[in-house]
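Folded chain entry
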Amino acid sequence: MTVGTDGWSGDAPFSYTAKRFAETGDPGIVWEGHKAGMEAAYCEIEKLTGLDALPPSGFTISCFPANISGASAGWTRAVALLDD
């Protein structure tokens, strides 16, 4: 599965997470979205732009990632293919 967001992460903003952590002391709330890959393989694409230009349906997204040796992340070219 692949998920995409126009934000910096699929996780809650770190300022919010830090506040919750200070209140609860629960380390399980830190980077919750990133832990999803422990349950099932997935790819998260962050900081996408132009999503507001897409129609509500009728398109397919193709992603062309850069493979960076030794890295856990890299950039991708995400392309929307509109249905006829």
Notes: Residues 2-82 form one domain. The chain has one domain: 2-82. The chain has a mean pLDDT of 88. DSSP finds one helix and four strands in the chain.
